[in-house]
């Protein structure tokens, strides 16, 4: 471990870069010392982190006895704090890292873990819990479960809507590996049913509030919204590759991306991480840095819409979030105003006295490594007025413009950012246990490791940061595709959702010997759709129904997606476009192509009494056309 004084010295290296002092040789020497120190730390810490991470996965993990196969235990700690549970979010992020490593280099032991994870999540999706069940998807929003895959019934911040999209993202990585290696049937029949449920949830409940990733604030979370957009974009492309479709993905993704832009504070140049709630916080939160690193797409350049690590918004936000911790932690005292510091969750945090976390400090480094990857790949760095303060904090002489390797500014800018990123990793090394153990937090005053020991997410965060530093980028997810950057027509956000269908994933048997086969084509980006027969059709129902204040309209019918004729389980229509002259209520529902549907509308009064429309049942057969896989039905109350 480094002594803390050495961290201060290394932090000063950044200042020396900044001031442009003439001691260039000394600056290079001290930067090289920092680099070698971090190199050595990564070399020692990487195998230890893998070993401890796998120890926390049931049922064979050395610290996970009693956990079901494929279940990620958040921490082995069973008291003070009790983290002997499995969180959908944490598990998905951990397995996303595992799957990325597996895709990069085949490992049969990791493949067994991945397959066990798929099987465990298929079972978990069908576990009824305090958030609900699978029939309407509500149960997928449950945050955590017992490690034996039974429900957790205690009081908690629920629902948490980031779990389903993050799990879909992780599983899509393995599904694409199966496709690339000739195992299309396994991807279609074993993995896709689990993914499809999570995509249905994401498209249906994206615009409803829930608790944030820290499980404390109920509202709309930037981290959740960004993950949802990615899952829908990636899901639409994967569905096409599997010979099916996800019309809800294509329909809702532009709306989610549009909504994501509302979190940006243009006056103070940072993301307000929680809106429609927030308990009076200032909004500067590591939530937003985590959103950026988990949305990283090496093909997307420095796109701000998807908050890529090198985008001007993400860099301005990085500075704002990191700066918010400079003066509140004693262990950050004495570090230059532009040096790396310990990073927590948010400045108002009081959990365990509100300390820095390993995973958030690592995330601060990882975003910068991701930015460095993109700048190096595209051979240019663009400084805008928005990102200028970030760059000037490292290189005061920096000005707006685009710099290429032939310009004298390019290499100094890269070196300054790289040294800054390395200093965050040096802080993690200095605050880890001597044996490399990474708990959840370290004390804001003394730097002592504390809270949940051997936090699985901490190890995963280290491994992904180290991978980015080594230049290993995650696979593309389609951020640069048309759908990846598509906003609604006219630029007007809409909160409409698509009622999904949910089916228990019952095929959980993986064929043996699914070793690497003949790889398929490796595209640089996710291809655009080609016309093909629709498997699912997105049907938009538009009903003209005059209602009174406090009344709502539901769509009920003979198929499960319409509640099986039960009004309480029917689809709630949206009155966002309702006027006296055009009293229209709308809802979008995914229905199976070729399905015979009978339906009616009901009005639910403020007193919950149900009034059915007259006449016979309406009916139609869902048509399977080519291309868009969408249709609209216009009705009037009868």
Automatic annotation (TrEMBL):
A Pfam entry, by short name: Glyco_hydro_15
GO molecular function terms attached to this record: glucan 1,4-alpha-glucosidase activity; starch binding
Active site residues according to the UniProt entry: 212 (proton acceptor), 215 (proton donor)
InterPro entries named among the record's database cross-references: 6-hairpin_glycosidase_sf (IPR008928), 6hp_glycosidase-like_sf (IPR012341), Carb-bd-like_fold (IPR013784), CBM20 (IPR002044), GH15-like (IPR011613), Glucoamylase (IPR000165), Glucoamylase_active_site (IPR046966), Glucoamylase_SBD (IPR008291)
Composition skew (Pro residues), residue ranges: 518-531
GO CC terms in record: fungal-type vacuole
EC number(s) from the headed UniProt entry: 3.2.1.3
Catalysed reactions, semicolon-separated: Hydrolysis of terminal (1->4)-linked alpha-D-glucose residues successively from non-reducing ends of the chains with release of beta-D-glucose
Domain CBM20: 531-638
Keyword terms, alphabetized: Carbohydrate metabolism, Glycoprotein, Glycosidase, Hydrolase, Polysaccharide degradation, Signal
PANTHER family (UniProt xref): GLUCOAMYLASE, TREHALASE
Protein family membership: Belongs to the glycosyl hydrolase 15 family.
Descriptive protein name: Glucoamylase
Organism: Schizothecium vesticola
